[in-house]
Each structure stands twice: as structure tokens, then as C-alpha cells.
Amino acid sequence: MSARDEGTRTAGAEAVPVLSAEGLTVRFGERTALTDVSIEIPRGYTVSIIGPAGSGKTTLLRSFNRMNEVIPGSSQAGTIRFAGRNLHSAAMDPAEVRRRIGMVFEDAALFPGSVFDNLAFGLRARGEEGDLHGIAEAALQAAGLWSEGAEILETRAGDLSAEERRRMCIARTLALKPDVLLVDEPTSTLDPAAASRVESLIHALRDDYTIVFATCDHTQAGRLSDLTAYLDSGRLLEYGPTQTLFTNPRNPRTEFYLTGRLQ
Q1: Fewest CB atoms within 10 Å of the CB: 90, 111, 126, 178?
Q2: pTM, 2 dp
Q3: Degrees (nearest 5) of the Cα angle 170, 224, 158?
């Protein structure tokens, strides 16, 4: 039984959240992308991050798996914890962090070669010596890309459709067996039918992973998430159960955004 089924959906439902940020401020050179953000992500929940373009949604996602630190000129203050452990402690290997907190980027970036080459890349990089084809098959099945059978493994990744690329990138992340799945704009650039199918995939993964996704489509957040965070100009203005936030927001700025009146 998933955490969503065990009681009331509240932001503090778990004693130790799988991810949390306290006083998180992120800067890129002179630009401040996030300011004093504090949030807890309960294990087993699906959490959406909404807000206007440039509000810091992607930066928050990237903070959770230490991707911001690879950007020249970035700096960070505050604390991020993963299962209660400081994400930036000396004992935390960044590569292991990024395996356990996997991220699917908006641009669906592909590695050269076949679909199998893409899924095997991360496995080989961490020294996986098991059945790579078997792991790849299981990940592609989970992502709904196994309908054509084993032939998909040898398909050139660049020949996939936009939807298939998005699914393959999800499968590539799932192959590493993460605890948390971060997804940035899961359906951007997709047509409505393809977007609906990708949303169905995310919904199907909810019982097996903690999922945090950023979206400019707040109706998508309403369809998929248990909890929603509203960011505005790099600040977290509201966070709570999605149904409550959508129907009875506490902050006027949240209401203005949801009703399309934000200036």
C-alpha cells in the first residue's frame, strides 16, 4: 500500500521525509533563483511544483540531486536532506545521489547510438556487471516502450518520436533503480494525445516511486499530484494537498496564478 492510501494527504505525513530543504537559497552569479525555500517531500507521494516561467521550478528540482553545482558560478545556502542525511555531507557521493534521486530533463537529451546504448550508459558508468539487456528490458516495459519487443533495443535513439524519447529518458532513469524520480516539464512540446499517454505513465509509476515534477500546466498538477508547491519569483508561497491548494488557496498570489490573473 502506498503512502497516499494510509491516511490524510498532508505535507508532514512522514516522520522523516525522503527529501527536504531548509532555508534553501540558490544563486547563479549575481542572479538569485531561489530564496529561503523550505519544503518536505514525503516518501511515496507525487509532488508537483508549479509557478510562472522563471519562478525557480527547475532550479529546485536540480537542487534535489545536486545538479546545480555543476553549473559555473552557482552557489547555495541552506540545507537539503535525503532520508534525513545532509545531501552535501562529505559522506554523500554525488554520483550515488544522482542515481538514487534520478532526474528526467525537459529537453529529453539523448546519448549517441541505440536505445540500448542509452539505457546501458549509466549502468556501465557505475560498474554494473549484471544482465544489462534484462535491466534495460524491465525499464522499457515500465516506461511502456516494449510493445515492439526486443527490436526497440537496437533502434537508433535519434529516430524515436518526441513521446518515445520522453519515455526512453524515463526508462533510462528507472534502469538505475532510483528511490526518487524528478521530472522537469514531463509533457512539454508533446501533442495532447502523447501528453495524455505520458501522464498515464507517471500515474502508473506513483505506487513505486516518490515523484516530484515541475510543470507550467497547473491543470496537469491537479490531475497527477498529491501535494503541490507554488513558487513565485524564487520563493515558496504555498505548499499543501493539491485539492486544498487548488480549491482554497491561502495566498492571494496562488489564487491569481491559478485563475490566470497573475500580473
Answers
A1: 90
A2: 0.90
A3: 25
pLDDT of residue 214: 97
| Grid cell at residue 160 | 524515436
**What is the rounded (10 degree) CA torsion for 249, 253, 256, 259?**
-40
Q: What is the mean pLDDT of residues 209-227?
A: 96
Q: 208: Cβ–Cβ under 8 A, 6 or more apart, which residues? A: none
C-alpha cell at 257: 496564478
What is the band of 45 on the pLDDT scale with cuts at 50, 70, 90?
very high
- How many domains in the chain? 1
Pairing of strands 85-86, 74-82: antiparallel
Which amino acid belongs to residue 4?
R
In this structure, the number of other CB atoms found within 10 A of the CB of residue 157 comes to: 21
Give the domain CATH number at 16.
3.40.50.300
Averaged over 108-130, what is the pLDDT?
87
| Residue range(s) defining the domain that contains residue 228 | 3-108+180-258
Q: Is 25 helix (H, G, I), strand (E, B) or coil?
A: strand
Residue 150 lies in a domain: no
DSSP state of 14: S
Q: Is residue 81 part of a domain?
A: yes
Q: Which residues pair with 76 in a beta bridge?
A: 26
With CA atoms as reference, report the closest residue to 78 among 128, 131, 16, 33.
33
Establish if 40 belongs to a structural domain: yes
Asked whether residue 131 is domain-assigned, the answer is no
